[in-house]
Amino acid sequence: MKTAFVVASLVLISTNLICASERIAETHAAQEGVGSRFREQLAQDDDPRADILSGEFFIHRTSERLDCKAGLSWMTGLAETGDAEAMFELGTMYETGSCAPVSEPKALAWLRKAAENGNNAAPSSLGKAYYSGNNDLGTDYSQALLWFSKGAMICDAQSFYYLGSMYQDGKGVTRNHNEAYKLFDIAMHLYPFMSEHRTMALLARDRSREVLTPGEVTAAGLASRRLLEALLEHDTQMIHNLFPQEALAALHASER
Predict the structure, then answer these.
(1) Phi and psi dihedrals of 131, rounded to 5?
(2) Which CATH number fits the domain 13-120, given the four candidates 1.10.10, 3.30.1300, 1.10.150, 1.25.40?
């Protein structure tokens, strides 16, 4: 009976994981170019996505044209109207120099606005900017911890991966391989099956496994499944009990 319950629970978690991954993937998918036929169909259907896809059409190279100036202007206009997806795209453009002059202040500003307006991909992008120090402000682990924690709360795989790295290396937090294992394990399950990112999370998880006892590994694995289930079910009490405490404190501090 107990085995059947565990199997049923894992099936339910896996189903919810697929749904969560698909929701987050929708935001990242906005970075890909689209064909003109799909773009035109959206416009005909009066789909609100048509504006963003039309803007991307000018930015990304297609068989028809590449017009960075028009694309940047279009995306800026959309972002200024409050479109969170356009804010994220614009921040990414200024961060990477894709069809826009590289500007870390503008990149961080637009990514922050995107995150504050509900874009699911923006928190991890902000976290990576502060974690790597590839910006005018330099490395800021407290900000990295905050934004990765925000991303983890919405089940973003990259946020869990980088949070795991912070705990594994002791950067900005107290080194804790139990927490690192738990976070890498969640990241691994959120990443697409057989993907390179999933493999990276698995290898990182195994580095922490090497310094844990078998009992600690079992406990961390169980904690990862319970935390992920709690996040998917919005179980506030369980999240409070299982989410890394330093990360949780960073979230609470930002809300004051």
Answers:
(1) -70, -40
(2) 1.25.40
Question: Which of 186, 188, 183 lies closest to 168 in space, CA to CA?
Answer: 183
**DSSP string for residues in 61-83:** --SS---HHHHHHHHHHHHHTT-
How confident is the model at residue 135, as a pLDDT?
A: 59
Domain boundaries, the chain: 13-120, 127-256
Looking at 54-68, 112-126, 229-243, which range is the least confident one? 54-68
Q: What is the pLDDT of residue 65?
A: 53
The confidence score (pLDDT) of residue 31 equals 36
Write the DSSP assignment of 147-183 as a string of letters: HHHHHHHTT-HHHHHHHHHHHHHTSSS---HHHHHHH
Strands of the chain (E only): list them: none
Q: Is the pTM of this model over 0.70?
A: yes
Q: Which of 84, 51, 55, 82 is nearest to 71 (CA)?
A: 55
Can you give the pLDDT at residue 87? 95
pLDDT band, very low/low/confident/very high, at 99 (cuts 50, 70, 90): confident
Name the DSSP class of 218.
H
Listed range (23-32, 53-62, 172-181) with the worst mean pLDDT: 23-32
User: Would you say 220 and 185 are in contact if contact means Cβ atoms under 8 Å apart?
Assistant: yes
Task: With H, G, I as helix, E, B as strand and everything else as coil, classify residue 119.
Answer: coil
Query: Sign of the C-alpha dihedral, residues 69, 75, 39, 30?
Result: positive
Alpha carbon distance 243, 44 (integer Å): 45
Residue 163 · residue 203 · CB < 8 Å? no
d(CA 103, CA 182): 36
